[in-house]
Each structure stands twice: as structure tokens, then as C-alpha cells.
Design a protein that fits this description.
about 200 residues; four-stranded mixed sheet; elongated; Beta Polymerase, domain 2; alpha+beta; Arc Repressor Mutant, subunit A; three-stranded antiparallel sheet; 7 strands
């Protein structure tokens, strides 16, 4: 699944991009603004808006010489639109729930990379950074089962592979010295999931 544009799992048309923008808007917007935010042509977006208005899924209001549009949140399909538009937030919620229930909690867990930024696609991994307790054997059965189950869950939820970058808390000084790419990515766009907050962890790197 493209977590940045979840509607494309069902439709790759202009409709999907317009619905994502409408679902994320808190006020009415003009057709031109919706086209800009959706990254689509004014003409294509206008055709979509006209049809969505006809179906009642979008409300249209004339203000001066401009038509403004907003999602009709009372429509029977509105909850479905909002749920799909909020897929990335739902992924974050599920990750926090699963990791938060681990028998062996991580020192830190976060999501980073394209999934965190919202600019990936169907071939992108869901990148996760997990810090293992320093005194825990890396082959500890419970720990390994947790990671395997997490990877399986991500695949089941999204269709994407989980790219899990796992390190020991005791390895953090080495990361500070080597500064591998994962450290830079985590520092730029990590979304905290469990354990020590990223900003505090980075102070130790």
C-alpha cells in the first residue's frame, strides 16, 4: 500500500487525490486550491468535483464569484473516506499498540523514512528503528518472536515489508562515531512509537 496515498489501493484516478485533500481539510476550499494541493490539473479536478457534488459526497457553496468545496461529513460514505485518508495515522496507532504490549519492551522504537514522511509508494518498506536493551541476548527467543510478529503484522496491514533496523542500547556509542545513514534519517523524520523519545535518544548519539 502507498501509505502516502492510501486511496490508490482502490483507485489510481484523480478522484483519490481529491478525496484525500478534502478529507484532510478543515474548511471549504476552491477548486483551484484543491487542484494545487492534489497536484492535479484544474480541469481534471473540476470534473471530479462536479461528479462528487452530484453524488452528494461533496458540498458546494458559492461565495462571491468563487465556488468553495468541502467533504459532506454527514454522507454515508464520508466515514469511509476519512478512514482511508487517515491510514497513515492508523498505522502509527497500531504500531504503538503492538510494541507497547511487548513482553520485552524496547529501549526505543520509531518509524522513519518514507512511511514517516508520507512520500513512499507500494514498493517502499515501512522502516522501523528499534533499540534492544543492552543486557538482552540478541537471539533471545521472546525478543526475536516480537520482531518477527511485528514484521508479519506490518505486511498484513499494508502489503509492504517492514524494514527493521535493530541495534543494542550498548551499540549507540558506535553509531555516534560511525553515523550510518539510518541515524541521519531517524534524526530527520522519526515518529516515536515506544520507549525513549527520539530527541532524547539522539542526545546520546
Amino acid at each position: 500500500m502507498d501509505v502516502s496515498k492510501p486511496f490508490t489501493a482502490i483507485s489510481s484516478s484523480v478522484d483519490a487525490d481529491v478525496l484525500v485533500v478534502l478529507a484532510g481539510s478543515t474548511k471549504p476550499r476552491s477548486g483551484r486550491e484543491l487542484a494545487r494541493r492534489a497536484g492535479r490539473s484544474n480541469t481534471g479536478v473540476q470534473h471530479v468535483l462536479d461528479r462528487l457534488v452530484e453524488h452528494g459526497l461533496v458540498n458546494r457553496e458559492e461565495v462571491g464569484r468563487t465556488f468553495l468545496y468541502e467533504l459532506n461529513r454527514d454522507h454515508l460514505l464520508a466515514p469511509t473516506v476519512e478512514q482511508m485518508a487517515g491510514a497513515r495515522a492508523e498505522l502509527t496507532r497500531r504500531l504503538r499498540k503492538v510494541i507497547g504490549a511487548w513482553e520485552v519492551p524496547p529501549v526505543h522504537a520509531s518509524m522513519f523514512g518514507s512511511a514517516a514522511r508520507g512520500d513512499g509508494d507500494t514498493s517502499s518498506d515501512i522502516d522501523l528503528f528499534v533499540v534492544r536493551p543492552a543486557d538482552l541476548d540478541p537471539e533471545d527467543a521472546t525478543w526475536r518472536d516480537q520482531l518477527d510478529e511485528l514484521a508479519d503484522s506490518v505486511r498484513c496491514w499494508t502489503g509492504n515489508n517492514a524494514g527493521i533496523a535493530e541495534v543494542s542500547d550498548g551499540e549507540l556509542p558506535r553509531l555516534r562515531k560511525d553515523r550510518p545513514p539510518v541515524v541521519e534519517e531517524v534524526s530527520e523524520d522519526a515518529v516515536d512509537l515506544a520507549g525513549e523519545e527520539t530527541r532524547k535518544l539522539l542526545r546520546r548519539l
